C-alpha cells in the first residue's frame, strides 16, 4: 500500500511539472482570430471605413487621426485588458498580456516596443489620444512584429 502511494505521488509530481512547463502562449492563428473578434466588437461603435481599419491593422497610424480612429484604438485596448482606470496603457497589464499570450518569438520585440513607448501617454490629456499615440508609437517602433485588429 505504501508503494502505491509513493508511485501515485511521483506520478502527480511529474504531471504537475509537465503542466507547469506547458507554454500557454497563443498561436498566430489564435491571435489573428482574437484580433478579428476585437475588431468586430469595436468597429461598429465608430464611423470608420474598412479601408481605414485595414490601415490601422497594417500599422499605419496617421498623426492627424480623427476622434473615431483614436477611440477605436482605445476600445481595442480596453478589450485586450491593457488599460488603467484612467484610460492609459498600463505597463504592468500589457507586460503580463505579452508574457502570457504572445508566442516566444514576439515577446522580446513586444516588450522593447512597450518600454520605448511607455511614457507617450503623458503628452496627452484625452484618454483616446493617450491610447492612440501609444499604439502608434509601438507600430512605428517595430512594424514587422506589430499586431493590431
Which secondary structure elements does this structure contain, and how are they paired or packed?
Layout: H1 2-21, H2 28-42, H3 50-57, H4 67-80, H5 91-101, H6 104-117, H7 127-141
Helix pairs in contact: 4-7, 5-6, 6-7
Give structural notes.
The chain is mainly α and 149 residues long. Helix content is 65%, strand content 0%. It contains seven helices and no strands. Mean pLDDT is 85; it is low at 1-22.
Quick synopsis:
Keywords: Secreted, Signal. Mean pLDDT is 85; it is low at 1-22.
**End-to-end gap:** 57 Å
* N-to-C series of helices and strands: HHHHHHH
Q: What is the C-alpha radius of gyration, as a whole number of Å?
A: 20 Å
General form: globular
Features:
single chain, 149 residues, mainly alpha, globular, disordered N terminus, PBP/GOBP
Amino acid at each position: 500500500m505504501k508503494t502505491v502511494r509513493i508511485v501515485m505521488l511521483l506520478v502527480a509530481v511529474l504531471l504537475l511539472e509537465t503542466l507547469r512547463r506547458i507554454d500557454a502562449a497563443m498561436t498566430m492563428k489564435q491571435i489573428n482570430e482574437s484580433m478579428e473578434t476585437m475588431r468586430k466588437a469595436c468597429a461598429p461603435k465608430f464611423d470608420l471605413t474598412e479601408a481605414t481599419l485595414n490601415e490601422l491593422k497594417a500599422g499605419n497610424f496617421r498623426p492627424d487621426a480623427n476622434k473615431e480612429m483614436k477611440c477605436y484604438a482605445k476600445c481595442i485596448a480596453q478589450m485586450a485588458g491593457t488599460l488603467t482606470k484612467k484610460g492609459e496603457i498600463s505597463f504592468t497589464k500589457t507586460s503580463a498580456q505579452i508574457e502570457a499570450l504572445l508566442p516566444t518569438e514576439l515577446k522580446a520585440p513586444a516588450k522593447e516596443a512597450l518600454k520605448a513607448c511607455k511614457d507617450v501617454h503623458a503628452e496627452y490629456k484625452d484618454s483616446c489620444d493617450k491610447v492612440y499615440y501609444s499604439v502608434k508609437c509601438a507600430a512605428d517602433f517595430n512594424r514587422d512584429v506589430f499586431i493590431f485588429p
